[in-house]
Structure formats: structure tokens, C-alpha cells
Amino acid sequence: MSQALTDGQATVLADPDEHRGGTGTAKFVLTKIAEAAASIVLVIVLGFFLFRLLPGDPVAFMARDRPTDPGQIAELRERLGLDRPMLAQFGHYFAGLFQGDFGESYIERRPVLDMIGERLWPTVLLVGSATVLAVALGLWLGIRAAWKRDSLFDRTQTGIALTLWSVPQFWLGLLLLVATNGLFPSRGMHSPDAGPGFVAQGLDVLHHLILPCITLLAVFYAQYMLVMRSSLLGEMNADYLTTARAKGLRDDLVRRRHAVPNALLPTVTLVFMQFGMVVSGAVTVEAVFSWPGLGQLTYEALHGPDLPVLQGVFVVLASAVVLMNLFAELLYRVLDPRVRTA
Predict the structure, then answer these.
(1) Which of 112, 121, 225, 233 makes an SS bond possible with 102, Cβ 3.0 to 4.6 Å?
(2) CATH code for the domain of 200
(3) What is the dihedral of CA 81, 86, 88, 94, to 10 degrees?
């Protein structure tokens, strides 16, 4: 009887903890989503007013090649909504965003959302290819460098990674253009003389992709390599590795089955957090190689300045960073049980 009561009390006492654990997870997820939503709203606000501080007059840029009188200038300002107070312009823009309306380009007179949609795929292709290669190369080199600490391989790879991580992307891209000396295309995504057919078109895009992809890869693999090396070095003297070796496991099995999975946690989180930053960082690379993505669209819009396009691209790129950070925080909670119990 006493044992039955004890078991029943244990069950009753366990239920509130389990309930609090589920509630804690839901509260954590909702809190992070709310923080991400607040960050995106702040991005929208800052982006709108920040681009208003850019030098240049969009109306003067549009009328630069045609004779216009002050009346026509005033009419054009009214048509674009630039004659209204700044807060009224912001209210109209903010309300339109919730309806999926990013505005209309001042220069091309087309919906900004359509222009972003056309340029999104080239950016995803470039950034996705560079990120996958950078993660694979960075993790592989980081694991080898850490396991062979202070060896010639470790010192060489660490020095190369530190050098590449500090190099500006646009400068590295220009160096590659000079070094290859016309071996690869330097502009665009397609050649006008490319043959018909899916295979010929695909090979042509791949040929154009090589230089901008290598530029992004060279800079970002270095960060993954250094973080993976540092994380694995922190696990090298852990007690569970000593126990695994004492049981007679080979060194490569100790590394692959025990050390690397634990060292991967911060690196996996970094991959998702940095993915949004890679998208933003592609702006300079696309400008150097005239890659027809969101970065090149931003570069072209700065000449006007084409404010609706700049605002739309800024919101998309900044939202990618915020959403990737949100996903990284949620993923880390799933991967590391210590975070769930904290």
C-alpha cells in the first residue's frame, strides 16, 4: 500500500515537470518568433528612412535625358508620392508590405516584387553552391587540422584560412579575374553564343558560375574551418574520449563516433546563422562579376537611387539573416539537450 502511494505520488510529481517542459519549449519558440518579427519590423523602418538619406534625386535622375520644366518635375514627384510628408510615405509603404506590395520601380516602372523574383534564383544558385562547398571543405579541413594539432598541415591551413577570412570579397574577385586572364567568363550568367538544349545551357551557366562561386567559397570556408578546428580542440581532452580510447577503440573511430559529433554543434549553428550573411555578402561579388542576382540589382538601383527597389531588396536580404538566425537558435535547442534543460 505504501509502495503504491509512493509510486502514485511520483507520477503526480512528474506530471507538472513534464507539463512545464512542454510549456517552456512552446514559450521559447514563441519568444524567438516574436523577437524575429520585431527585428524584421525594425529592419523595415530603418531601411525606409536610411535610403532617404542617400545622395541623389530620383526625379532628377529620371529626367536627366529629357527637357523638363518645374511643372513637369512637380507632377512627377506627385505621381511617385515624393511630395507627401515622410511619415505619410512610410505609412503607405508599410501598409503595402502587408499586402505583398513592395512598390513600383522608379526607373523601370515595374513591380519591385516581380524584379526581385526574377533575380532571386541566380542569387540562390550562387550562394547555395558556395555555401555547400564551403561547409564541406571547411569542416573536413577543420577536423584534420585539429586532430593533427601543431603539425605542418595544421599551421599551413590555419594560416591560409586566416588570410582568406581577412580578404575583402570584391578585391579577391578582381584578383581572380586578373589571374585567370580570360579563362572564365567575367560577366553575366549566360553567353549569347551558347548552344541550344538543357545540357549546353547548363554547362554555360556552370562556366560563368565558377569564378564568383570560388570567390565566396574562399572567404567563407575559412570561417567554418577555424570554428570547427577550435570546437574540436575543445573536445580533445574530454573524459569520454579518454574512456573510448581505454576501451580499445581506434583513433579514427574515436574521432568519427565521439569527438566530431559533439564538436559539430556550434558549427552547425554557425552554418545557418551565416547563410543569411552569405546572401547579403553576395552583393559585392555579384557587382564585380555582373551576376544577374539581387546583389547586381542593388548595385544598379543605387545609381538612381531607385528607392523602392533598394528598400525591397534590403528587406528581403535582412529578413533572410533574421530568419536563418531564428532557425539556428531553434535547431541548436533540438541538437543540444543541455539547452533544453537550461
Answers:
(1) 112
(2) 1.10.3720.10
(3) 90
